[in-house]
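Practice problem 4.
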């Protein structure tokens, strides 16, 4: 028997958990930020990466890169964003089968997204069968995969998934996260430089704040250009 087994009755007990937001004061938040140590050379490297990437794009004619390659990559990304994960996997394999063969984490996340889409469409039995046949064996090989799988299956324990502790898995942001991961892997396989790190970090900041908003009230950065903390309204 697989090490992975889902008991909906046990998962239903999660519904009794309190989901009230934690309040973090400005003093507490600023102390946490001050405790983070970022090396100056890492900051310099980040800025240089952005400058070099932008100058190269403007001066080297990278706009003339193979349009077919861009079209194929964007088709994969759009397929994931629309929830057509099977189609996305097929397109990735058509581009380069080694992308998924050599990246088990990426393949797991795509399979996880397939299960999320089944749950989104109310196909509970199909989702459980898919989890046990396709995802559980990978979870047995990797503990982090198993933990992610269990979080995903926990969606089935709630009638009102919008208010469950793992509701973020059904957000469009989860699709975007998976699509971005696939896009980066394709770029790497094609020996292209990924997007400059600075814009990616800013996008990550926005995404993380949106996720944290569901769990806590804290001083957040609303104006990225000013990078100033603003107290949240409780």
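Answer key:
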């Amino acid at each position: 028997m697989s090490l992975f087994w889902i008991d909906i009755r046990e998962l239903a007990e999660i519904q009794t958990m309190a989901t009230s937001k934690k309040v973090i004061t400005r003093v507490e938040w600023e102390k946490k930020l001050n405790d983070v140590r970022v090396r100056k050379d890492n900051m310099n490297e980040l800025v240089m990466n952005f400058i070099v990437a932008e100058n190269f794009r403007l001066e080297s004619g990278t706009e003339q890169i193979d349009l077919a390659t861009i079209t194929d990559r964007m088709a994969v990304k759009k397929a994931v964003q629309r929830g057509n994960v099977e189609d996305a996997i097929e397109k990735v394999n058509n581009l380069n089968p080694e992308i998924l063969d050599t990246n088990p984490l990426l393949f797991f996340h795509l399979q996880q997204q397939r299960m999320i889409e089944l749950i989104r469409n109310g196909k509970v039995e199909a989702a459980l069968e898919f989890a046990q046949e396709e995802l559980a064996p990978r979870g047995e090989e990797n503990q982090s995969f198993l933990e992610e799988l269990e979080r995903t299956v926990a969606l089935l324990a709630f009638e009102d998934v919008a208010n469950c502790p793992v509701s973020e898995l059904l957000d469009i942001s989860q699709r975007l996260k998976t699509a971005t991961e696939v896009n980066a892997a394709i770029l790497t396989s094609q020996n292209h430089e990924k997007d400059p790190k600075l814009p990616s970090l800013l996008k990550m900041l926005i995404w993380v704040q949106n996720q944290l908003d569901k769990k806590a009230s804290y001083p957040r950065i609303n104006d990225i250009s000013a990078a100033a903390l603003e107290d949240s309204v409780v």
